[in-house]
């Protein structure tokens, strides 16, 4: 009985998260992450540097007793570093029970982008598009939809 109730609740939660994306800004581009990966959004905080990590991994933070690595998404994409300010946020995501903080210029909004409004990115350069899962069309704008697994694992 409890198992059935739990699976029904999980199914409902999946339905409410379907086609929902947290959008954020890096420079002039808008990006989106499937809301199912997002656990919370926090302001920028003190980051402890850890030696011998890739440059885009800024270090670790202590979030209520959990140690979480933080990645500067600008640096991950090969963009120029930008000083953190009061708009800079950390989006904490959970991908396969791995918590990671993504440092972004600012968070925009949660929005619905129906699956039929998401197209495959053009095949210009495989290495540049490897983190982009799709392009969401929202009115006259586009949002670059990230592939969280590739962002964290590649």
Automatic annotation (TrEMBL):
Gene Ontology biological-process annotations: chemotaxis; signal transduction
Gene3D superfamilies per the UniProt record, alphabetical: CheA-289, Domain 4, SH3 Domains
InterPro entries given in the database record: CheW, CheW-like_dom_sf, CheW-lke_dom
Span of domain CheW-like: 18-154
Annotated Gene Ontology cellular component terms: cytosol
Entry-linked SMART domains: CheW
Pfam families linked: CheW
Source organism superkingdom: Bacteria
Protein name: Purine-binding chemotaxis protein CheW
Organism: Acetivibrio mesophilus
């Amino acid at each position: 009985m409890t198992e059935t109730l739990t699976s029904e609740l999980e199914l409902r939660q999946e339905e409410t998260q379907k086609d929902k994306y947290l959008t954020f800004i890096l420079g002039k581009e808008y990006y989106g992450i499937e809301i199912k990966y997002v656990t919370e959004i926090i302001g920028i905080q003190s980051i402890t540097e850890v030696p011998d990590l890739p440059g885009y991994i800024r270090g670790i933070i202590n979030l209520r007793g959990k140690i979480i690595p933080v990645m500067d998404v600008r640096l991950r994409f090969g963009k120029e570093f930008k000083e953190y300010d009061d708009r800079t946020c950390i989006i904490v995501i959970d991908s396969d029970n791995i918590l990671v903080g993504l440092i972004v210029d600012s968070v925009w909004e949660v929005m619905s982008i129906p699956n039929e409004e998401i197209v495959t990115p053009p095949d210009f350069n495989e290495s540049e598009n490897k983190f982009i899962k799709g392009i969401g069309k929202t009115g006259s704008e586009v949002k670059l939809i990230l592939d969280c697994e590739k962002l964290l694992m590649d």
